[in-house]
Amino acid sequence: MSSRSISSAAALCLTLSLAALGCGDDPSPADAGTDTGVGDGGVNPDAGGGLHPLGTICSVGGTCASGQCVDGVCCDSACDGTCEACVLSQTGEAAGTCAPILANQDPEDECGTDECGTGFCDGAGACAPVAAGQTCRDANGACDVAELCDGSSAACPADGFVSAGTECRAATGVCDVAESCLGDSPDCPSDDVQADDTVCRPAAGPCDVDDLCDGQNKACPTDAFMSFQTLCRSAVNACDTDDYCSGTSAACTDSFMGGAISTCAPYRCSTTAPMCRASCTSTSECATGAACMAGMCVPARRVFVTSTLHRADFGGLAQADAICQARAQAANVPGTFRAWISDSNTSAAMRLEHFNGPYYRLYNGVAEIVADNWADLTDGSLDRTLGITEYGQVRNASQGVGITGDSAWTGTAANGSATALNCGNWTIGTSPTTGTNGTNGGNVANWTSDGALYCQYALRLYCFEQNPIPPG
User: Fold this and answer.
1) pLDDT value for 32
2) How distant, in Å, are the alpha carbons of 271, 289, 319, 327, 390 from that of 334?
3) For residues 178 and 191, what is the distance between their CA atoms, to the nearest angstrom?
4) Model pLDDT, residue 260
5) How far apart are the C-alpha atoms of 148 and 404, rounded to whole Å?
6) What is the pLDDT of residues 227-268, one digit of tens each?
7) 314 CB-contact burial (10 Å; exposed 0-12 / middle 13-18 / buried 19+)
């Protein structure tokens, strides 16, 4: 019921009450000259002064024929809608007729609280709306949306939210998760991370491990690897080796034997694959007891002249052999070596291998044949001189005194037999005792028998590779 009108029932009660108290007629101007002396609670059809017509000033609906007193006049209806009135000054219509309040007015302050209203009536019985698109409720969270006036209603639309599943917080690390709106709340759900033990970095190699989220941090932990010396690849054959993790890399580095094994002779194992070599570019790619010649490893025996000088009292044949072996080891030359030397009891021919293959010197990394075989070695001439040291260098004639830097103790003739001069079986290092010597630069018989020198001089020794050949 409108606060501006009084119903007929209430008016009747008020009228009866007034009659009982002996009150007079309604003092309304409309009732002037028609008073019959009875209360307005009854109708006097003869006088026509019972209930008032529309537009008559009133205070209660019971005095009106319509039963409705609105805006102080008898009205044709309750007229209790928004922006409705029953007086000329507000509607422009005849008093007593309920009609829309004129536009841009709001006498009853009915339109002041609408978010999308102008604060005035629209002249058609409603509060006037503002233009469409005006914000009437700001977004209040990552999952909220601002509401906009629709231009047809003064009321702000119902509060809405971002659709469920819309991302509201992006993941900022591999152990983070993106959060999405729920569709019924303005707030983004609480920040969360991947569950503990979630793989955040898969293993990327045989020496790598899966890295796992810790359930607390957004970043994946530091990349970890298998422990140092963890076996990552087993050898597949004799030319291969077991491979182990480095502890600092995901990769398992494949390595190979690269050495000499019996099944590869006269070649060595490859350094790039688990297999025997099938060709060579240098003698280092051949097994011990072989040399690279014309791109192929062939069984051969290396010879060299020592880079060191020794007086004749070095102590005998065994000590001469020891000097040769020590020089080979000093230069990382594999194999077993003996000295080309004789004494009164044993000749070089008796104590050295009679190899039926080439003897060679290694000069500038190239195997150069000195003799084709034992027979060629002992026939009184050489294909090349023996003047290359264990280091592959040309012997240094500037060492020693006089010709000693270019000579070697031998006590041996060109055919490998012993001579009579051996410095007391290589125990005397003074004059006037002498020993047979050879010339390092000779390629005829003089390479081993070029005369005799006093035992006090320091000369070189010739060293010959022998069989048996130790592994490697």
Assistant:
1) 36
2) 18, 9, 19, 11, 11
3) 8
4) 65
5) 113
6) 999 999 998 888 888 999 999 999 998 887 767 677 888 999
7) buried
Helices (H), 386-426: 423-426
Contacts (Cβ under 8 Å, ≥6 apart) of 96:
53, 54, 55, 56, 66, 73, 74, 75, 76, 86
Pairing of the two strands 135-137 and 127-129 = unpaired
- Pair of tokens at residue 96: 């007593």
What pLDDT is attached to residue 225? 95
Cβ-Cβ contacts under 8 Å for 329 (sequence gap 6 or more): none
User: Could you give the CA distance from residue 376 to residue 223 in angstroms, rounded to a whole number?
Assistant: 66
Neighbours of 454 (CB within 10 A): 17
Q: Name the DSSP letter for residue 220.
A: P
Q: Determine whether 260 is exposed, middle or buried from the number of CB atoms within 10 Å of its CB (0-12, 13-18, 19+).
A: buried
- pLDDT tens per residue across span 418-471: 999 999 999 999 999 999 999 998 999 999 999 999 999 999 999 999 987 544
Q: What are 392's two structure tokens?
A: 């592959």
Check if the beta carbon of residue 255 is closer than 8 Å to that of residue 266: no
C-alpha separations of 51 from 20, 46, 58, 79 in Å: 18, 12, 10, 19
CB 259 within 8 A of CB 213: no
CA distance 441 to 447: 7
Distance in angstroms (rounded) separating the CA atoms of residues 86 and 76: 8
Spatial distance between the Cα atoms of 374 and 376, rounded to a whole number of angstroms? 5
Contact by Cβ (8 Å): 147, 135 = yes
Q: In a 10 Å sphere around its CB, with 0-12 CB exposed, 13-18 middle and 19+ buried, how is residue 82 labelled?
A: middle
Write down the pLDDT at residue 49. Answer: 55
Classify strands 366-371 and 310-311 as parallel, antiparallel or unpaired: unpaired
Which residue type occupies 9?
A
φ, ψ for residue 426 (rounded to 5)?
65, 40
Query: In 75-146, where do the E strands start and end?
Result: 84-85, 99-100, 117-121, 127-129, 135-137
